[in-house]
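Kindly inspect both lines:
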Amino acid sequence: MKVVGSREFNQDVSAAKRLARLEPVFVTDRGRPTHVLMSIQAFRQLSGQRESIVDLLALPVAAEVELAPPERWDDR
């Protein structure tokens, strides 16, 4: 677990995000932990949450999938 002060966090958010890919990052304010930054994968594992259909449709690969046109119902 990595601990960074709020000033350090504010000065380099990108570095904190890179660290959070590997382990949770605790952000402190005046030496006291106030926030935790973690990857979405770690959060989902911790909370037991799975990817939703919205998450899956937002993937770049989803844009490349061609769907067949809907069939039309003809009166027969």
Q: What stands out?
A: DSSP finds five helices and three strands in the chain. Helices lie at 6-11, 13-20, 40-47, 53-57, 60-64.
